[in-house]
Amino acid sequence: MSKYFHPLVKDPYSIDDINEAKKILDSRQITMSKVTKKFENFFSEKMNTKFANMVNSGSSANLLAFQCLINPYRKNRLKPGDEVIIPTLCWSTSLWPIVQANLKPVFVDINAESLNIDEDQIERKISKKTKAILLVHVLGNSCNMSKIERIKKKYNLIVIEDTCESLGSKYKNKFLGTFGDFSSFSFYSSHQISSGEGGMICCKKKEDYELIKSMRSHGWSRGTTFEKKYKSNDHLDNRFIFFNSGYNLRPTEISAAIGLNQFKRLNKFIKMRNYNRAKIINVINKNEKLRKNFLFYGASDHVTPSWFGLSIKVSKNLNKKNVVNKLEKNGIETRPIISGNFANQPGAKKYKLAINEKFPKSDLVYRNSFFIGLPTSKINNQFLKKIEKAFETAAN
Ligand SMILES: Cc1ncc(COP(=O)(O)O)c(C=O)c1O
């Protein structure tokens, strides 16, 4: 039994999802196969992305994007020390794949309203070595993609969209994850859809798709055009040609089956979360004391959001830590707004990233904001009363 009446995620899997997983077990084809391919094709078609490779997590998707960018087979590959712009408010594995690829992350502070990178601060961080921007679409929202597209064009930059928190959100009616050269998605259990663990890496060029595909599976040529290229009659077994460096970041068929089944319900989830979000906001805003103490982050201009959580800012006269502790004690699970200012994390200090730089907006958001979950089944009045009571206790 959960100690929370309102956990971050509740019952993420339907009976149908579980049945899809059981079918895979019954078939004994548990390792990556046809269902994964089916999910990739369906995802590409619905999201309007050109190429998609499913992986075992959103972190792996980011890792493969950056390994692809430095891959020796890639035309115009990035070189050690090339710079990548990244918002300070990010997830750990939005950042580390940049460092692991021997590239240099250059932090830009966020816009404290959108929680996304402050587009207006990007240009002053661009140098001759800047080759890419990694965007993090935070908690269902987006920055101004029209401004990003202008910057991309002006400086000829590669854009990687970390869409792990924003599957289904749109900017000017176009899905996030379809603007950049690469985009990553996560199907971890608290996100818009869940496959247990799982992710997708999308890209626009066939060249990148094939390199990613090979690195996902040991650097193998299987299923890529390199299979033909390296076909030979000499000492090598043509079934096992390893032409590239690689990992094993494949998903299981079980994850693909659950992910595919959930993805078909994404629109339903979006609608239900919108409904529940409006109900929670309404109950808090109707209460005079609560209205003064809690503010809700909304979608930026031109964004049609797909939320999975409700991001909340506490007023100046409350201490966020106390609020969060009281909500936790009273049955509401909470989370920080991702990492806050990532430069403050011990890992960033150990690697000497962004030493002596200040990112006041990310610091502020970490100090005064948090988020709670949004269920995918309809909440009732009794539940709303409990929410109101917990927030009243937290505001005292
Ligand atoms: C912005 C962002 N990027 C990447 C990830 C990593 O995704 P995963 O947990 O599937 O590895 C997360 C995870 O929560 C995230 O929030």
What is this structure, in a nutshell?
The chain has 396 residues and is α/β, with parallel strands linked by helices. It is built from 14 helices and 14 strands.
Q: Could you describe the 3D structure shown?
A:
With 396 residues, the chain is α/β, with parallel strands linked by helices. 38% of the residues lie in helices and 15% in strands. It has two domains: 249 residues, Aspartate Aminotransferase, domain 2, CATH 3.40.640.10; 129 residues, Aspartate Aminotransferase, domain 1, CATH 3.90.1150.10. α5 links the parallel β4 and β5. The chain is globular, with a radius of gyration of 22 Å. The chain starts with 14 loop residues before the first helix and ends with a helix. The mean pLDDT is 97. Bound molecules: pyridoxal-5'-phosphate. Pyridoxal-5'-phosphate binds next to α3 and α4.
Topology, element by element:
Layout: H1 15-27, H2 34-47, E1 51-55, H3 58-69, E2 83-87, H4 92-100, E3 104-108, E4 130-136, H5 145-155, E5 158-162, E6 170-171, E7 174-175, E8 182-186, E9 199-203, H6 206-216, H7 226-229, H8 253-263, H9 266-286, H10 288-293, E10 294-296, E11 303-304, E12 309-314, H11 320-329, E13 335-336, H12 346-350, H13 360-368, E14 369-373, H14 381-394
Parallel strand pairs: 2-3, 2-4, 4-5, 5-8
Antiparallel strand pairs: 1-9, 6-7, 6-11, 8-9, 10-12, 12-14, 13-14
Helix pairs in contact: 1-8, 2-8, 3-4, 3-6, 9-14, 11-14
The chain binds pyridoxal-5'-phosphate (PLP).
